[in-house]
Amino acid sequence: MTQYAAMASKTVPTVATKRVSPHTIRHTTAVHLLRAGVDINTIRAWLGHVSLDTTHIYAEVDLEMKAKALAKVEVSGLKEPPRQRSLLSLMAFLKAL
Questions:
Q1: Beta carbons of 13 and 34 less than 8 angstroms apart
Q2: 9 and 50 share a domain?
């Protein structure tokens, strides 16, 4: 794995400072599949997990996807307007992750 990380670091220099293991490649691939819209059950089968609970960690880890989902949420039917200040600070916090 070290030799492939060294080869990859020629294109992506930050790879040289990271520990790259088979688990890292597996995890990264699963997260990329999830971001691409591949169903979590398909990812579970591809990874060979027996339980969906084991694969669910990939959905929990991806904060970028959570932020995008929150940005799409529209709350309607409220009697009073939401507190813009707290909503803006929440979105700023999520974008900073």
A1: no
A2: yes
- Check whether residue 10 and residue 57 sit in a common domain: yes
Task: For the chain, give the longest Cα–Cα distance.
Answer: 61
Q: Is the dihedral of CA 34, 38, 44, 47 positive or negative?
A: negative
Task: For 3-46, write each residue's pLDDT tens digit.
Answer: 888 888 899 888 888 888 888 888 888 888 888 888 888 888 88
Task: Kindly list the distances between the CA atom of residue 2 and the CA atoms of 12, 15, 16, 19, in Å, as whole numbers in the listed order.
Answer: 14, 10, 9, 9
> One-letter amino acid identity for 64?
E
pLDDT tens readout for residues 39-78: 888 888 888 888 777 777 777 767 777 777 777 777 666 5
Enclosing domain of residue 89: 62-97
DSSP letters, 32-68, are HHHHTT--HHHHHHHHT-SSHHHHHHHHHH-HHHHHH
